[in-house]
Write a structure and sequence with these properties.
This protein is of the alpha+beta class and about 70 residues long. It has 1 helix and 4 strands; from the N terminus they run αββββ.
Length: about 70
């Protein structure tokens, strides 16, 4: 009887690890979506001088933000 319990526990652990260590979520809500567009009042740092300016005041060049004085 104990041998059967150990075998079933080992099979259960194997299946658990096979699924990535996560149990399937039934009825759970999905993760909240992240906003891709930042708000207009979000501050970013200038890559050249280090000052913080809003997204509206910053200039995006090659993936980096620059303030109006450094452009």
């Amino acid at each position: 009887m104990i041998l059967k319990l150990i075998i079933f526990a080992a099979i259960g652990i194997f299946i658990y690890k096979l699924m990535g260590g996560k149990l399937p979520s039934v009825g759970m809500k999905s993760k909240p979506k992240v906003k891709k567009n930042p708000d207009s009042d979000t501050l970013v740092e200038c890559s050249k001088c280090g000052t913080y300016v809003t997204i509206e005041e910053a200039t995006l060049i090659n993936g980096k933000y620059y303030c109006d004085e450094c452009v």
